[in-house]
Amino acid sequence: MAKQTLNVIKNWFKTGLKPSQLQFWDTWDSFWHKDEIIPAANIENLDKRFDEKADQQAFAGHLKDVSAHGINNKVDKEAGKGLSANDYTDIEKQKLARLYNFDDTDMQEQIDVINQKNTAQDVEIEVVKDLALTINSKENIIAIGTKNQYFRGDKTWQTLDKTAIGLGNLPTYLSNYGALKAGLSLGDFYSITDVFGNYMLAVTSAETSPPLILTLNIPSDNYKLDLGTEIYSYNGMENILDYGDGYSQKSNNIGVVFEHTYLKAGIYKIALILADYSNVTVAYIRESTITKMENLSKLNSLTFLSITSGNLGYFNTELPSNLSRFYLGGIENKDKNNEIITGIEIDIFRKNTDSYFDLEISYTALADINFKVGFPGSLKSANFSYNKSLTHIDLDIFKNCTNLTKIELNDNGNLFVVKSVSSLPKGLKELHLQGNKLTYVTVNNILIDLDKIEFTALTVTLNNQNQPAVPTGDGLIAKNNLIAKGFSIITD
Q: CA angle, 427 as apex, 378 and 406 as ends, to 5°?
């Protein structure tokens, strides 16, 4: 803490201003508290006042020194010099007579001034004595407390909470990301900056959930976020959007729009705090600098999620349970291989067991689709198209998808390995594998495995491979068998 001048302190406490904690503490540290010991060195002119007084021992010796006062030199102390009424001449008597009515007014005023000075000095000495007694009565050492306590007048440390400072009835409000991350509980305070640069107090609630978090790798100074990152709800939702660089915005609208310019390059975390996470229904993520997403599963009413830009690498964000459509991919440009995702590390769909959902992962750098745990039975359709790096896919991931009706694996360019066709569910109605790099051997094996499954209806497209893959032998026989069953089979 630092001592501040009166002018600085007065500027902090002007009407309409709200001093910070540091300013408040600096104000108190600029004055002496009654419980504090004032060092003698800090009492102005104390040494000078003592210097003006005579030393007690020297003064006592002076009073006893007969030579100092010339007592032995008095007239009546010397032989033959005793005084009497006849020892004065007439002239001397006239001079002495004049002293009878002597006017001593001017001299008396000077004497009074001297007496007043002496009295004032005596009072100052008494004050110093009292100060010394006060200092001697203070504590030499104060026991160490904690940052959550304050030192009370009874010389004890007490817990500092809202009740201690008279805020016991403060209403619960939204808490920001910092308070939540620290694990604060009901009754703890946290200050955040609102859109106008002012401060407001927020108190966490026991029911508050962690916020949605987006990690950004801002590449340059004065970087403006891409337009299009928006989150929508059923109705107005009270929210705070903390951009992680000291700026935040507060609103209560149907939609939350991410609009901000970062002044400095670096790693930042955007935290979205909502009064009610169950209100969120739609989310569009379109920011190219995103490297990580957290707590998406908290949006338990989210039905549509679209992530079309970013650099997520291995995507491992667990998805909410009520999602009905999930799109993960880049811009729809067949000539561009967006680096938004290179792989899927864990099963992100483990909560999607109750609601049917459609999945599309397109225009990514995904090289292999082989989830550790397969898709849930609630998956209705899956589209893995325009992934230029995709070379392998194991269809065993769909073995539990009893409600799956459509699979699209089109125009991946380098896809040449397709495994476990026999694991496909019987309810499948469409399988599209056109525009890939499948050989005629792979096409033959796919047709043979499909012919072994008892589908009720089926459309298959295996045409437009990089090199024509015309079915032969058993593959051609299987194709004809499928057509005879009433299915639509298209190949090169």
A: 70
Homologous superfamily assigned to 319-492: Ribonuclease Inhibitor (3.80.10.10)
As a whole number of angstroms, the distance between CA 131 and CA 460 comes to: 100
Residue pair 326/319 in contact by the 8 Å Cβ criterion: yes
Burial (CB count within 10 angstroms: exposed 0-12, middle 13-18, buried 19+), residue 188: middle
Domain boundaries, the chain: 319-492
Q: Give this prediction's pTM.
A: 0.57
Report whether 40 contacts 46 (CB < 8 A). Answer: yes
Neighbours of 374 (CB within 10 A): 19
Region 122-148: mean pLDDT is 61
Enter the tokens of residue 134.
């006060």
Distance CA 60, CA 248 (A): 76
How far, in Å, are 67, 184, 189, 204, 295 from residue 174 at the CA level?
89, 12, 11, 6, 17
Tens of pLDDT, residue by residue over 82-103, are 555 556 667 776 666 666 666 6
Using alpha carbons, select from 419, 472, 461 the residue that is nearest to residue 436: 461
DSSP summary character for residue 259: -
Task: Tell me the two tokens of residue 336.
Answer: 């561009």
Residue 22 has pLDDT above 70, yes or no: yes
Q: How many CA atoms lie within 13 A of 413 on its CB side?
A: 15
175 or 69, which is more confident? 69
Sequence-distant (6+) residues with CB within 8 A of 63 are: none
